[in-house]
Amino acid sequence: MMALRLATLALALALALCRPAAAAPKYVLRMATVAPDGTSWAREIRAFSREVDTLSHGEVQVKWFFGGIAGDDVQVGERVRRGQLDGGASGGMLCQQLAPSMRVMRVAGVFQNRDEGAYVLGRLAPTLEQEFRQSGHVLLSLSGLGPEVVFSRQPVRTFDDLKRARLWRWDLDQLGLLSARQLGMNVVALPLEEAGRAFDEQRVDGFFAIPSAALAFQWFSRSLYLTDLHTSYLWGCAFITARSFDRLPVEHQNLLRAAGAKLSARIEEAGRQLDDTLLGGLFEKQGVVRNPVSTALRNDFLAAARVARDRLGEKLVPPQLLQQVLAMLADYRAEHRSAK
Prior knowledge:
This protein is an alpha/beta fold. It has one domain (24-339): Bacterial extracellular solute-binding protein, family 7 (D-Maltodextrin-Binding Protein, domain 2), CATH 3.40.190. Helix content is 52%, strand content 19%. It is built from 13 helices and nine strands. Strands 1, 2, 3, 4, 5, 6, 7, 8 and 9 form a nine-stranded mixed sheet that branches. α2 packs antiparallel against α11. The protein starts with a helix and ends with a helix. The relative contact order is 0.16.
């Protein structure tokens, strides 16, 4: 019996040694994002990479650096330009640099919900794809990341309360900073990784943030009030350099685009579900106090946002582009009013 077992073990070992090793990928794409590992964003990005690996039969591997390991959006952009990275995923800031028309999606007070933004983004997609190409990149994915709301140490009940509070905003969010300051808000521009510490040290009174970011970076764990005033929306992208994309065989280019389209849909759907869960009660269960948004606060903010974008004009986005988007929204709202 012992001899039989030894013979069986020897045979199994011999077969294992004879098996060909898994072939190394022919193409390795190095991508980076500030999104922390373990988040819903990272989960969907990993699913994208697995799909590319599977459909290419292991010939294309997408290797991701999460959590800002490769730097913030500016640093990632520089590494992409130097050829140290092949692309990345951005929460909007780098996307706006590569495709300037995407800035219009961040204008305060324009969109009332995610559906409106998704409608406009879909119609702007050909323009954005062209701008990415002109900047030497290929757009793989466009997704809504969520509404920007207010987390604060004290309740925000009026527009004056909103303007008085020292609220953190990402220092790379140039458009958000420009708009907020024109609105008379007391924003504090700091790097992403400093936001929580700045609150703890009372250098800021709260955050402008999308719900999923408040969860990902654990800002919600502090004693906060949530004011669900959708000041603007955040839209993200994933991209690859044209030089890296063009060296792939056509069939791999096609599967990369197809996997990117699925990534867009998955991140959009996951974001909607997460927003519904977080804003629907999960934050409150974790100790965040929901602060009702009065009609007066909402109306005052929207009125001030209209004045701010008129004053900023070209500094914000080209007026022609803004008017085009407002016309799209008018059509969308009219269609959906008639359908009710």
